[in-house]
Amino acid sequence: MARGGMRIGEVLKITPDDIADNKLIIRRPKSGKESEVVFIPKKLMAKLNEYVATFGINSSERIFPISYTAAWMIVKKAGKIIEVDLRPHDLRRHAATYASRSGTPLEIVSKIILRHADLSTTQRYLGKVNDSEAVRWIENLHG
Fold first, then answer.
1. Rg (Cα) of the chain, in Å, rounded?
2. Mean pLDDT, consecutive 10-residue segments, the chain of 143 residues?
């Protein structure tokens, strides 16, 4: 979720059949489309493929056969370990914020990472920019 900007429900539906090169195919996404593509880093893709092979997951089986509640609890527990009140959707927001703060164009964050139909939805995700961040970007651009 944190690397691909995926929703928890999308992660829970992934099967080995959905793995293609450096992307995941999301079937029946929230958008109502037949499918959408999620790009994830090569290292993460390699770990996912290794996990599938290690556990002998059949091509049409869910890779993570747990409930929404169980996945929610795993994320909450991980947050507790690092003393952060963490929810699954925070990881999706992190993917967008990290990409944006790293200089990724808003159109890529919106259309590719979050798969939003409208840029204004993405802008709500990213929130406001504080003064110190604005100064840092101005210095990077013109300093």
1. 17
2. 93 96 91 92 94 97 97 96 94 91 91 91 76 76 76
